[in-house]
Amino acid sequence: MNSIVNKKKSKNDSIDNFALFGNPVNHSMSPNIYKNFSKEQGIPLKYKLINVCENNLIKEMELFFSLKNSKGANITVPFKETVVHICNSLTDRAKVSNSVNVIKKLSNGTLLGDNTDGVGLIHDLKTKKFIDKKSNILILGAGGAALGIISVLLEIGSTVFIWNRTIEKAKVLEKRFKHLGDVFYLNFFNKKIHEKKFNLIINATSCSMKNQIPDFPKYLISSNTYCYDLFYSRKNTVFTKFCKKNGAIHCSDGKGMLVSQAAFAFFLWYNKFPNISSSMDSVF
Ligand code: ATR
Questions:
Q1: Residue 282: inside a domain
Q2: pLDDT tens readout for residues 139-196
Q3: Is the Cβ atom of 207 under 6 angstroms away from ligand 1?
Q4: Quick check: is 147 in a domain?
Q5: Are residues 85 and 190 in the same domain?
Q6: Using CA atoms, how far apart are residues 246 and 204, in angstroms rounded to an integer?
Q7: Domain termination residue (choose one: 76, 100, 115)
Q8: How far is the CA of 32 from the centre of ligand 1 (A)?
Q9: If residue 197 lies in a helix (H) or strand (E), which one and from where to where?
């Protein structure tokens, strides 16, 4: 009896531990996604959700990473930018977006911050054939979510337009990413908004979380416009419903991006790339 308990204990002791830090985290699909990757790749791991607030984020992260088996973590809203300053080193992707959604504990115990949101989004958009090499993309929103995706969209040759309720924030992002490609802020008074045909509209606002639609000219949506919501829910989001109602045919929420960014995070941890489409089928 004792030896069975000990065997179980020593097996558990050697299992890699991961966690998601954020607020809120209880709705997260990440445990299911990583459970699937773990099964598919034959790598046992434990994944837990840690709800934190600004005041105890550092303490909770230090506590988690002080454990020998804690190998990595994911970071979600609203801490992706804060964690940039907690990591010991950053990948280029994390530096450019100035936000971290995944951490790997390196063999010397230091924390490497990465950002897989952008590559996860591109992977999903390509899989769905929502972009080609020269897409004109309208991003709604200029908060953390927009920040994480602009550089990768520019890198693949897209022209990016940013529309935001607070114009000043869109201007700041234009300035910040101008050196990487064609990026422009837009508002009602800018004639580009009336002249342009956008191939893809991405909702990077937090409106869907509140069941709201950002205020933007709905005549920009047509049957040829792909519409993508970074937010996801079990059913259609309010944004994808709104776009369909206004003539869009191809709409998607962010489930594919969620699983893809997790696959790139898993790759950072284990150098092995899980099967995204089979995980999509099992998780959702
Ligand atoms: P973050 O911390 O990432 O900035 P946020 O404050 O929830 O998150 O806002 C994310 C984005 O959603 C912002 O671009 C925000 O617009 P503002 O910059 O004007 O605040 C946008 N957003 C949130 N609620 C909105 C609403 N009701 N209508 C339009 N945009 C909204």
A1: no
A2: 999 998 998 899 999 999 999 999 999 999 999 999 999 999 999 999 877 777 667 7
A3: yes
A4: yes
A5: no
A6: 19
A7: 115
A8: 28
A9: none
Domain membership flag for residue 208: yes
Task: Identify whether residues 10 and 102 lie together within a single domain.
Answer: yes
Give the CATH number, domain containing residue 22: 3.40.50.10860
Tell the residue nearest (CA) to atom 7 of ligand 1.
Answer: 206
The distance in angstroms from the start CA to the end CA of the chain is 40
pLDDT category of residue 284 using cuts at 50, 70 and 90:
confident
Find the CATH number of the domain harbouring 194: 3.40.50.720
Say if ligand 1 is within 6 A of residue 187 CB. no
**Model confidence pLDDT, tens digit, residues 222-278:** 999 999 999 998 888 999 999 999 999 999 999 999 999 999 999 999 999 999 999
- Computed on alpha carbons and rounded to an integer, the radius of gyration of the chain in Å comes to 20
- My answer on whether 124 and 249 are in the same domain is yes
Is 110 in the same domain as 122?
no
Among residues 71, 80, 104, 105, which one is catalytic?
Answer: 80
Identify the pLDDT of residue 220.
Answer: 92
Angle at alpha carbon of residue 115, lines to 111 and 121, rounded to 5°? 155
**Which of 115, 165, 230 to mutate to test ligand 1, by most ligand atoms within 8 A of the CB atom?**
165
CA of residue 168 to ligand 1 center, whole Å: 12
Range of the domain at 237: 118-256
| Residue 90 pLDDT greater than 90, yes or no | yes
Distance in Å, CA 143 to ligand 1 centroid: 6
Number of domains in the chain: 2
For CA atoms 219, 206, 244, 258, the dihedral sign is positive
The verdict on the CB of residue 212 being under 6 Å from ligand 1 is yes
User: Is residue 222 in some structural domain?
Assistant: yes
Please tell me whether residues 145 and 92 are part of one structural domain.
no
Alpha helices in 87-245, H assignment, sequence order: 92-97, 117-127, 144-155, 167-177, 192-195, 238-245
Quick check: is 39 catalytic? no
Nearest atom, ligand 1, residue 213 CA: 28
Asked if residue 254 belongs to a known ligand binding site, the reply is: yes
Q: What's the whole-model pTM score?
A: 0.91
* Pairing label, strands 89-90, 136-140: unpaired
